[in-house]
Structures are given as structure tokens and as C-alpha cells.
């Protein structure tokens, strides 16, 4: 069923012109690329649902060649001093700042993100570059006391090799930069397989990186981007020349790639689906909680891995909180993400809207009541603008336990905090979580060992919008990976433990005698 018509959208011709100009400024000649390559991926925009350009696709042989070339580049790059490697990321950060609007335009055009969020994504890239530059002078190991006289025990960290980066459509640039910036300062090289839905953004980012590399005199092929399908990316998954795969996407994708990487004893950083919840306690500041909930649940049209999908609210304040959420939802400006006043843009494609409709149907069958939303706004045939939905659920159910990548917020009630935490943790995924409370005991309980089981556990902020300084990632079917800040860099390096004997004796460890 269609509900109120959308305001006028930016036309496909205007979006195409903006994409072409942004790409050109980033160093990509889209018209020259259009005819290249034997097979193509068609770049499209969810804003109007129409095609933009044909883009040359990489096939399985291209991916294999990319792995070989990135491996050759690694053999040279690993001996470049880390602070010098940091110089390349410093220049990349400067170029991203210079082209912030260009990259943000491409993200907006290909993903349908509103400008503020698209610009935020590029800011995150600039921030991780800053972080990695600092890190390039801090890749230190520890020295431990040796049990033997005249011996020194220490650890050193070394580059690993080629890092395969597989990224999802919804963070088409930031996820690459989280991995790339850290990998490059660690002395690794990168083969990047972006989502096939975001090839233009990937082309712009890669061109900026190549320019930075040229300007600082770095070797070629430190990052090679392969716009390939999942099926054509198998050389990346299976090659022993790729010691680490950082894969971001659905639990389904993780379940396909993880066993194959494990079968060759490769390392994986898996950043998979989330099913994020917020507990709202009786003492919560309801103004703040409502704002946090609405941004986390409806922002990015529900298409963030950290999107808030479940609210578990104390029964005494449930009606009040729900009425505040519904009031905010009823005024959400839905429409063209290129317009400054829009807060909710389109879903990525027809499949996403079909998933949303099917989930709402299942929620009803499982006893839920749709309180608001779920309908499609009238607009172009290929564009899917969905009204964010709020569904009251009597209890946890199968659909509530699944991640539907669309703006659906399930609301459930609880009586005791222990019950709330039990409901909270009773899902397969473990990415992000939050509690809204002014009671310090409850806040501490939520982030304690027997509290939230997620990789991110917040107090009095929503589930989305992480900073790069912390390690990002989640547990259970979210995959257990960590990337971005803190000590996540350790996953991109190999550790060697060195025992150095500077004496003339050869004492054995544990006092073993072998004479
Ligand atoms: P998706 O799983 O459909 O695709 C993700 C990427 O994996 C794409 O590049 C795709 O081509 C590739 N891929 C899929 N199957 C593959 C295979 N067998 N071999 C190699 N590559 C394969 O996900 P999507 O629709 O692009 O993104 C949405 C999903 O990503 C959601 O589940 C969301 O929660 C998740 N996500 C997670 C994080 C995180 O950090 N945890 C961040 C962003 C998105």
C-alpha cells in the first residue's frame, strides 16, 4: 500500500551530473571507464531507483592478479619504516578532507544517505587516518622479565601480508578506511572488494589513495580495488597469500566465508549483522532516551549494523515512552536525501522493502501490533521510501531475534532489570547495546560481566554512531572481529616473541638439564 507522495526528488540526470563531477574531482574519468572491461556492474541510485553508469567489473582472474600484485607490493612495503608509512596515510587524510563533499555526494547518491550522515562517514575516514598516523609511531611490543640470567625476552610486531577487505553497501567508504589506514601503517597491503552497489564511491576512494601514494613516492599496488561479485572473489577468500580477511556484511556472508578462511588457517575479522537493543529504565531521562532511540532506529533508514532494532522498556514507563517515540516518528521528514531537511532517505532497493514488509507480516503473526509506519511512500517505480515502523511485541519471538535491514523498531516491556538483560541477550547477534538510566547501579550492572553480551555497551546514548578511538565489533553471530581504534591494530600484524641470550651460558627454561 502506498502512503503520501514524496516531495519532488533530485532527477537522475542531476544525480548523474553530480556523480560525474565528484568522480572527476577525485581523479576518476567515468566516461573513459564506461567502455572498459568485458563485463560490467551498473551503478544505480536508490534516490530515484534508476541506473547511472556502467562500470567495469573485475572477474575471478582480475582478483587473482590483484592478490599477486598486492603480495609483490607487500614484499617491499614491509621494510619501509612505519612512521614513513604513516606519511602516506597522513596525505590520504588531507585529500579526504579536501574532497569530503565529493566523496559524501557519491555516498549519498549510491546509498541514499542524508548529507549529514554521508559527510559524517567521510569525517570518520579522516579521523581514522589521524589515528593511524599516530599509531605509526606506536607499534611497540613489550619486554618481559626472562627467568634465565643474561637473557632478554621481548615481543616484536611485524607486517602480515595482503589484507583482503570485503565491505558492505551501507558504509561504502568508512569500512575500507578503517581497515586500510591501519593495515597500511602496519606494513600490509590491501585488496578491496567493495559492495557491487557502491562501485562509484569505491572508485573515488581508491583514486584518492593512488594519488596520495604517488605524491609521497610510495610503491604501486598498496591498495588494489576489485569491483567483483562474491562469486568472483574466491581467490581473495582462498589464497594463502592473503593471511587476513576483514569481511563486513550479513551473517549469511560470514557463514559462507568464515569456514573457508579457517580451512586454510587464515585469519578473519568478521563484522556481521547486529540486532541491537536499548533498555529504558524507570529513572531514564525520557527526553534524552527518545532522541537517542529515534536517531538510532530511524536514522540511515534503519540500514546501519548498529541500528536500534529493539527497545526493552520498564512496564511503568512504557506507555509514556511509546507515545513520545510515536510523536517523533509521525513528524520524521522522509524523502530526498539530497535535501537538507530530510532525515530519512530511501531503502537501498526493492529487496530491502520486501524484507521489511515480510518482517512486519511475521511480527503480526507472532502477536505484534504495528503502531506506526511500514508503508511505502508514493514515488518512482524503482525507489523505495519506507515509513519507519514501531511494533509492539508481547514477547521475544523469531522475527525479533532476526536482523531485518530496514527501519523496524520492536518494543517489549520488562519488570526487573535481570529480566531485561535476559531478553536483551536472547538473540544470536551481539553487536551494540544501550541502557538509558540515571541509576548508577543499573548502569554498572548493564556493562558488567553478567550484563550486556555485546561488543559495544553504551549508557545514555543510542546504539549507533561509534567513535573510531574504540575497538569496533561484536560477539556471537556478529563474528567477534574488532577493527578501528584501541589495540585493534594487533589483528593486522604478526607477533614474534624473541628470547635473546647475551651470556656465555646456555641455561634451559624451567631449569631443564640436558648435559
Ligand atoms: P552482504 O552480506 O549482502 O554483502 C556484504 C559484502 O560481502 C559485499 O561486498 C558482497 O558482495 C560480499 N559477499 C557476499 N557473499 C560473499 C561471498 N560468498 N564471498 C565473498 N564476498 C561475498 O551485506 P550488505 O547487504 O552489503 O550489508 C548489510 C549487512 O552488513 C547487514 O547485515 C549489516 O548488519 C552488516 N554490516 C555489519 C557491519 C559491522 O561492522 N558489524 C557494518 C556494516 C554492515
Automatic annotation (TrEMBL):
InterPro entries: Ald_DH/histidinol_DH, Ald_DH_C, Ald_DH_CS_GLU, Ald_DH_N, Aldehyde_DH_dom, ALDH7A1-like
Gene Ontology molecular function: aldehyde dehydrogenase (NAD+) activity
EC number: 1.2.1.3
EC category: oxidoreductase
Presence of keyword Transmembrane helix: no
Active site: 271
Residues annotated as domain Aldehyde dehydrogenase: 38-495
Protein origin, superkingdom: Bacteria
One Pfam family recorded for the sequence: Aldedh
Keywords, ordered alphabetically: NAD, Oxidoreductase
PANTHER family cross-referenced by the UniProt entry: ALPHA-AMINOADIPIC SEMIALDEHYDE DEHYDROGENASE
Record family assignment: Belongs to the aldehyde dehydrogenase family.
Assembly behavior: Homotetramer.
Protein name: aldehyde dehydrogenase (NAD(+))
Species this protein is from: Mycobacteroides immunogenum
Native organism taxonomy: Bacteria, Bacillati, Actinomycetota, Actinomycetes, Mycobacteriales
